[in-house]
Specification:
Blueprint (H helix, E strand, L loop, with lengths): L8 E7 L2 E8 L5 E6 L13 H6 L2 E6 L16 H14 L6 E6 L1 H12 L4 E7 L6 H8 L11 H13 L5 H13 L6 H7 L3 H7 L4 E5 L6 H7 L6 E5 L7 H4 L1 H12 L12
Parallel strand pairs: 3-4, 3-5, 5-6, 6-7, 7-8
Antiparallel strand pairs: 1-2, 2-4
Helix pairs in contact: 2-3, 3-8, 4-7
Length: 277
């Protein structure tokens, strides 16, 4: 973030089950935009784009989902409904207005879908990167994900760091640290959000969504094919491709990401990419 960029401020909002941590950029009264991260990260994954959204006229707010980052940890393992209800309660407590726009990434996309499908008056538009419309194999893999184990020698941490460096060469050092810290902050509950997604009927949620949807991905994105396959299932959706982008899209292709989401939220026609069968 340059010295002239909008400042990212951090805070907490109270809910019935605990405090939800958030980071925000933009001024009070600006158009609200809620950003929901993937698991096991936190809202820190959007630090690179929050100032840019603020410059476009948004009050951009990235929440830490329950059980992630600095937000409260659920007492019991949540299903997608419980995870999403906790998130929606936090959004309502921020008093942003009745219907707001959501940006969701992987797990965050699943949460945003649940909120849009079950509380339609709370959501105006959805911009989703990596929609978790999983095949049977992936559903089972996530649904049965085991809790993390860490030995005293820290070898698992070194392994995670090596994998980060191999899979995300474009991710800078600070973001790799954020990613690893986010995973550690979930502690023994790291698998909970993935299991919630794996056990959810995402297809049914997609078919219930009435709001306009921007589905974003690329050929590199692990959920790229699933994202493209989801588009015909929505009542009103368009697909947009950001070539070369991956899970770390906010860091490596932040401007393209901001531009696509902003155009969609402003109801400006986006050049639609061909959906490959």
């Amino acid at each position: 973030m340059s010295s002239g960029s909008p400042l990212i401020r951090k805070g907490y909002v109270d809910t019935a089950k605990g405090q939800v941590h958030y980071r925000r950029a933009g001024t009070d009264g600006a158009t609200p935009l809620i950003l929901l991260h993937q698991s096991p990260e936190s809202g820190a994954m959007f630090d690179a784009v929050l100032p840019g959204f603020a410059e476009k006229g948004y009050l951009a707010i990235a929440l830490d989902l329950p059980g992630h980052g600095l937000s409260y940890r659920p007492e019991e393992e949540p299903d997608l409904a419980a995870l999403s209800e906790g998130t929606l309660e936090a959004v309502k407590a921020l008093r942003l207005g009745e219907a707001v726009d959501y940006v969701g990434h992987h797990t965050g996309a699943g949460v945003a879908l649940w909120i849009a499908a079950t509380h339609p008056s709370s959501v105006r538009r959805l911009a989703l990167w990596g929609i978790p419309l999983l095949n049977e194999e992936w559903q089972k893999k996530l649904a049965d994900e085991a809790p993390p184990t860490y030995s005293d020698d820290g070898s698992e941490l070194a392994q995670q760091w090596t994998l980060l460096c191999e899979h995300y060469p474009g991710m800078n050092f600070g973001r790799k640290v954020d990613f690893l810290v986010g995973a550690l902050q979930t502690k023994e509950t790291k698998a909970w959000a993935h299991r919630a997604i794996g056990r959810a009927d995402v297809r049914s949620l997609i078919e219930q969504v009435k709001q306009p949807v921007l589905a974003i991905a690329s050929d590199k994105e692990i959920l790229g094919e699933a994202t493209r396959e989801s588009v015909p299932l929505f009542r009103d959706a368009v697909y947009h491709d950001i070539p070369g982008a991956d899970l770390d899209v906010a860091d490596t292709h932040g401007l393209e990401f901001i531009t696509a989401v902003h155009a969609f939220c402003q109801e400006v026609k986006i050049v639609q990419s061909v959906i490959r069968s």
